[in-house]
Design brief:
CATH architecture: 4-Layer Sandwich
Distance between the termini: 60 Å
CATH superfamily: L-amino peptidase D-ALA esterase/amidase
Helix content: 10-25%
Shape: globular
Number of domains: 1
Structural class: alpha+beta
CATH topology: L-amino peptidase D-ALA esterase/amidase
Order of helices and strands: EEEEHEEEHEEEEEEHEHEEH
Strand content: 15-25%
Radius of gyration: 19 Å
Largest sheet: 9 strands, mixed
CATH class: Alpha Beta
Number of helices: 5
Length: 343
């Protein structure tokens, strides 16, 4: 069985997104779909790359819930993936991946085995924990949720806020979880004059505060005892407060996409560099209670040698912007006000 080749198409072969699209779907060939459960705030988000894309991953958190991440190691055989499934529901939410695989299999999309007679969709996945938010923890994303999210996927600008994998996402829990806030899904993109596009989508469920790097101000996170304002974790920690980020209550998940042509090794480096965006916009980040994971995908629509350091730097920037948008686009739910609710 030979190694599958990277994509040979060019951006001219795919409908180009409008310049006004500043989300993950600004990268041609990328579709995003959400499914949000109405019974409890939880759901899943599917990133479809039906033509295939080389990919890498960086798992930096201490409490991850993932599937097929080992397959993305540069030394392993399969070169391309066809979707990524992000979900709430902790490890239970990984079931949504099965629905995405079913959807792709029905369209005969996947890694071809046995001389092309058997189709295996390659779908890495990661989940965040939201089981304690909004009611019955038995209500979780299922395979059917993943299938519906894949059905809903399109190249339209990505819906942000309380949707999909971000429906039950919260922030500001390192102080013991008494005064957290609502976050959700955010997305951002950068377009360069030479045609390079780097974009990100992030589901923000962090233990820490969200800080806007443009202003250095906290916009969501741990609140003061009266719950009416932001406490600023930087000041609290420097004053001697102890981090109590409960294991299994957090995790921020991200996907970075570019139209550049990258190998798996290069995509892995992009994912590693993109984690800097977490550190810029989340404080504290990468705690023992976070399962932070970033996937990086390269559609190959832009030919020519790629400047990995440039793309990685841009990836960190769009990740930070997407994290900020996950906070500013979220809406409050009972017990969890959003950034827009705190003056």
């Amino acid at each position: 069985m030979g190694r599958p080749e990277g994509p040979r198409y060019t951006t001219s072969a795919i409908a180009q997104p409008p310049q006004s699209n500043q989300t993950l779907t600004a990268v041609p060939g990328i579709k995003v779909g959400h499914f949000t459960r109405t019974e409890r705030p939880t759901g899943c988000t599917v990133i479809l790359i039906e033509r295939g894309a080389n990919a890498g991953v960086d798992v930096r958190g201490s409490a991850p819930a993932t599937a097929e991440t080992d397959l993305l190691k540069p030394e392993n055989l399969v070169q391309q993936i066809f979707a990524i499934a992000l979900s709430g529901g902790s490890a239970f939410g990984l079931d949504s991946r099965t629905g995405v695989m079913t959807y792709l299999d029905e369209k005969n999309i996947g890694f071809k085995t046995y001389g092309g007679t058997i189709n295996v969709p390659i779908v890495p996945a990661a989940s965040l924990i939201d089981l304690n938010v909004g009611g019955n923890p038995k209500i979780r994303p299922t395979a059917d949720c993943g299938y519906r999210a894949a059905q809903a996927a399109s190249d339209a600008p990505v819906a942000e806020g309380n949707v999909g994998a971000g429906a039950g996402a919260t922030v500001g829990k390192w102080g013991g979880g008494n005064r957290p806030m609502k976050a959700g899904i955010g997305s951002a993109a950068i377009r360069m004059n030479d045609g390079l596009i780097v974009a990100a989508l992030v589901a923000v469920n962090a233990a820490g505060d969200i800080i806007d790097p443009a202003t250095n101000k906290v916009i969501a996170g741990v609140r003061t005892e009266d719950g009416k304002s932001l406490a600023d974790s930087r000041k609290l920690l420097q004053a001697g407060a102890q981090v109590r980020a409960a294991v299994g209550e957090n995790t921020t998940l991200g996907v970075v996409a570019t139209n550049a042509t990258l190998t798996k090794t290069q995509a892995t480096k992009i994912a590693e560099m993109a984690q800097d965006g977490f550190a810029r916009a989340i404080y504290p980040s990468h705690t023992t209670g976070d399962g932070d994971t970033i996937f990086a995908v390269a559609t190959g629509g832009k030919s020519g040698d790629a400047n990995v350091s440039q793309i990685g730097a841009l990836a960190a920037e769009v990740v930070a912007r997407a994290i900020v948008r996950a906070a500013t686009q979220a809406a409050g739910i009972p017990g969890y006000p959003a950034a827009r609710d705190i003056k």
